[in-house]
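Example 3.2
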Amino acid sequence: RDYSEASKIPPGWHGWIHHRVSVPPSSDEYRAREWQKPHQPNLTGTPAAYRPKGSVLTNQHRPQVTGDYDAWTPGS
């Protein structure tokens, strides 16, 4: 199933959709700039999403607390 996802819009189309450029990428006049990178989809919410070390969504163990943190308590 293919869901609509705003991050699927390639850079060239993004500029045209947001009225930043007047030439759509499908036109013969469109040329990608040398600094434009290939499109990468937003993987948030998928199994391929980035999960940092210690995230509760990974099967890794969280690092041991070092004692350099004091939790806030009301009235202190």
